[in-house]
């Protein structure tokens, strides 16, 4: 709950002192009452560590089991984006903070996320999107910042195409590159991608491994070995990234431990 400020000076200036007190005093009274009673009310209970995690997990499971209503039914400017909106907001914050010149996205699908990234780049007047998929849907959104690559993300031919596109993009020594991995979610494939695409990421920028929540963290326990296990395997022997847990601040994320920041 947001505890409002009394804003007494502004209230005097605008002649709304009585209205302000009517609003503020009962809230203050209730806060004091809650603090004084030692009973576990629901909001305290939700902040208890284990209760908090199980509440988040239960909501996540509910969200995933209703995927036709939730992530299969999420659109950016009318185009499907199979993301959690809370993560998309985190993307926006990361983009604003890091201002990447190039964003490589694996798994275009219908292109809603590519368009979202391009539109945020429009607002910052900087950034190009390279997006890769084995399938090539007909009605992909057209945008001058979005560059489509058709192919398997781990094939040499695809990597070569990405290098060629990057070379064409007026690269400077301080060009910043960010990567989002969101195509096939098996452990070995994602591990291979982290090794390949992690090299593109420039220090201070992010490698986002999507859907680390799969494989029972807490959703889709049927998948044995997925993006989370790939991240854990990679992090055991590599020290060029750190997991940035701050990006999980909205509690629900499809990418627990999946926001990797390049430090070297
Ligand atoms: C989960 S969807 C991607 C969702 C999309 N990133 C979004 O935010 O809306 C997975 C996509 O990965 C593609 N894909 C699966 N395996 C791939 C591979 N080895 N290389 C390239 N694309 C692949 C599929 O064709 C599919 O479009």
Structure characterization notes:
- This protein has one domain: Vaccinia Virus protein VP39 (Rossmann fold).
- The protein is 42% helix and 14% strand.
- It is built from nine helices and nine strands.
- A hairpin with a 2-residue loop joins strand 1 and strand 2 (79-80).
- The model has no long low-confidence stretch (mean pLDDT 92).
Describe the structure using short key phrases.
single chain; 264 residues; alpha/beta; Rossmann fold; 7-stranded mixed beta sheet; two-stranded antiparallel sheet; 9 helices; globular; binds S-adenosylmethionine
Q: Mind sketching the topology for me?
A:
Blueprint lengths: L7 H7 L2 H20 L5 H6 L1 H17 L9 E2 L2 E2 L4 H14 L3 E5 L5 H13 L3 E6 L12 E5 L5 H13 L8 E5 L5 H11 L8 E4 L17 H11 L3 E3 L15 E4 L2
Parallel strand pairs: 3-4, 3-6, 4-5, 6-7
Antiparallel strand pairs: 1-2, 7-9, 8-9
Question: What is the residue-averaged pLDDT?
Answer: 92
> Span between N and C termini?
40 Å
Q: Bound small molecules, which ones?
A: S-adenosylmethionine
Amount of beta strand:
5-15%
Global shape: globular
Q: Kindly report the spatial arrangement of strands forming the biggest sheet.
A: 5-4-3-6-7-9-8
> Under CATH, the topology is which?
Rossmann fold
DSSP summary: helix tally: 9
Helix-strand string: HHHHEEHEHEEHEHEHEE
Q: What count of structural domains?
A: 1
- Biggest sheet architecture: 7 strands, mixed
Corresponding CATH superfamily: Vaccinia Virus protein VP39
Q: Spans with pLDDT under 50 lasting ≥5 residues?
A: none
What is Rg? 22 Å
The CATH architecture can be named as 3-Layer(aba) Sandwich
